[in-house]
Design goal:
2 copies of one chain form a homodimer.
Chain A lengths: L1 E7 L6 H18 L2 H9 L4 E6 L2 H13 L4 E5 L11 E9 L1 H8 L3 E2 L2
Parallel strand pairs in A: 1-2
Antiparallel strand pairs in A: 1-4, 2-5, 3-4
């Protein structure tokens, strides 16, 4: 089991802002999962990977693919109070779900360094 | 209601690594909260702030203060597989809890930029 958080790297958000968006997506996608998937993921120590997306469109496409596979997702749009315009897609959370299921969708993406 | 994530800025973690630690703390502290506190926080849109701590000791001290006040907390130590030595304290999550309760503990800390 794992959870993947894909950020919109084109926005070049500052560290703290980026971390808040990722945390938002992590909690949001977790809450979309079944109790049994939540529990398995917690038992495994909440494995979590942050990957780099290139655009809002890419994040939306990942969400569509995940939904088709019944993987829990949460798309975060910033409220726009601080750094970016309101409604900007900043991050999408996928899972917790099985490693293979997630890799089918995000396997080609790079780790955010 | 809000949740505060305080990172150990002395580690100068790369963006992706930092975001994963913050997300870990966010989910962990959320799960420590009462159902009623969770629900109130979700209803308010999961307000979340990422703040800058200066050392592992500071994060441990914040956790102690939070526990004394029955604020949910989650201290994250990295498994040490990648960037930092095993057991390194990277982040502490505090809340969801009332704004005033949290500010009593973290009000003097700066936003992580």
């Amino acid at each position: 089991m794992k959870q993947v958080l894909v950020v919109n790297a084109a926005l070049r958000l500052p560290k703290g802002k980026l971390a808040a968006q990722v945390a938002h997506a992590a909690v949001g996608a977790f809450l979309e999962a079944t109790t049994s998937a939540q529990q398995r993921w917690l038992d495994e120590g909440m494995p979590k990977v942050v990957l780099k997306g290139n655009s809002a469109e890419e994040l939306l496409r990942l969400q569509t693919l995940a939904r088709q596979r019944h993987i829990p997702t949460c798309l975060i749009s910033d409220a726009g109070r601080t750094v970016v315009p309101a409604g900007t897609v900043t991050c999408v959370g996928l899972g917790p779900a099985g490693d293979n299921e997630i890799d089918e969708i995000t396997g080609a993406l790079k780790l955010l360094s």
